[in-house]
Design goal:
Radius of gyration: 27 Å
Number of helices: 20
Strand order of the largest sheet: 2-1-3-4-5
Largest sheet: 5 strands, mixed
Structural class: alpha/beta
Shape: flat
Helix content: 55-70%
Number of domains: 3
């Protein structure tokens, strides 16, 4: 097995060199009259930012592998060089930094030609960078950028020996809802070592969507690191198990009442709002996440299950539980939210549970004036609100 992984690393290293050579060739026409290695490096990073991040993460991946191997076997296997060192050692870069080459380029240098070349490369690369950035931002919007307090317990539940493949799937879907260093590290571990094909592929695709380096192992090269024969047999038996999670409110309602991963969850805030104000709410969540606050918003935290066309009694029960799991409630005040039966229901239920209700207007969020105050006017009390919910 070690021979195979070593060959894979050598192949990976050759691919990295080819990529960097291509990047350098493309930025050569942009070099200034007094260029040096730092300028070459900065131009590569500027025009290939995401590609460079992948190379850095790839380097970190092999360093981590070496650290583990050294711990158990006392000797490193890869001794990987960082991307900067690989770039510096490329023949094309060595040639560019030779005194004769620098002198010749200085004599032939044309500021006008450099400007034209920059326009050409900008036209070629900037749309691709923008497209890549938008794709990553779209993937990140499905998650909250913070570390909830129950994150370690949730990951521990996944790694527990008694956790079934089906339960692992549910835990996996919950962890996808948070974007931070811990979850990225977790998904890299799953993509690298999870024996179940479905979960391994899901981790690989999730990391790719976020623009992170990941390596997908083929099943025949996977290893089961346990001496327990029964456990090894069980893991082998579940390698190709596939679970389809029912994307319906009733499924989530059942999990909330019966599963460990849902009982672990807590929220700092439950956002009561109208779906018409979703852009403002997204802005509010981003603001709160910067303070490491975990926010419940139905179309973000439970989007797997709570579809608008599937609203039913189970939906109401899920909302009740999420309010109970939240420390405080934020009411996003707008014309649409004051006319929403669901907002009235949520605020009434929160009030009955003795939850503190804060208020913030949609206009304040839009104008970046986010200041939460206590809601004193119980305008939402209406005996008819529940009977007209669209269940």
């Amino acid at each position: 097995m070690s021979g195979y992984t070593k060959r894979m690393y050598e192949k990976d290293l050759q691919e990295t060199r080819k990529q960097l050579e291509k990047y350098v060739d493309n930025i050569i026409p942009l070099l200034s009259v007094e260029y040096d290695f730092d300028e070459i490096l900065n131009l590569v990073k500027e025009y290939y930012p995401y590609e460079w991040r992948i190379l850095e993460e790839k380097y970190q991946y092999y360093c981590k592998k070496d650290k583990t191997i050294k711990k158990f076997h006392g000797k490193e296997r890869y001794s990987a060089d960082c991307p900067k060192v690989i770039l510096r050692r490329l023949p094309v870069v060595n040639k560019l930094l030779m005194p004769d080459t620098i002198k010749r380029k200085r004599e032939m240098f044309s500021a006008q030609k450099q400007k034209e070349n920059k326009i050409i490369l900008d036209k070629k690369r900037l749309p691709k960078i923008k497209k890549q950035r938008e794709r990553i931002e779209k993937a990140k919007k499905r998650a909250q950028e913070m570390e909830p307090e129950f994150l370690d317990a949730l990951m521990g539940l996944y790694d527990r020996k008694s956790t079934s493949q089906k339960d692992k799937m549910y835990v996996f879907l919950e962890l996808e809802k948070y974007y931070c260093k811990k979850t990225i590290s977790f998904f890299k571990k799953v993509a690298d070592s999870e024996y179940n094909c479905q979960l391994r592929n899901m981790a690989f695709e999730h990391l790719q969507s976020l623009g992170h380096y990941t390596f997908l192992r083929k099943q025949k090269y996977m290893q089961i690191h346990t001496k327990n024969k029964k456990r090894k047999q069980r893991i082998k038996g579940t390698a190709h198990e596939i679970f389809d999670i029912k994307a319906i409110p009733q499924e989530l309602e059942y999990r909330i009442e019966n599963s460990k991963e849902q009982k672990l969850k807590t929220y700092d805030y439950f956002v009561s709002h109208s779906s018409m104000d979703h852009q403002s709410v997204q802005k509010l969540i981003t603001f709160l996440n910067k303070d490491n606050k975990n926010v419940y918003c139905d179309w973000k935290a439970d989007d797997n299950y709570l579809k608008r066309n599937l609203v039913c009694t189970a939906t109401k029960n899920v909302i009740n539980k999420r309010i109970e799991q939240s420390r405080r409630i934020i009411f996003v005040d707008s014309v649409a939210s004051r006319n929403s039966c669901w907002v009235k229901y949520e605020l009434n239920y929160a009030d009955q549970q003795g939850k503190e209700i804060l208020i913030l207007s949609k206009d304040s969020i839009d104008s970046d004036n986010i200041c939460l105050t206590t809601l004193k006017d119980k305008w939402f009390t209406d005996s008819n609100y529940e009977s007209i919910l669209q269940l």
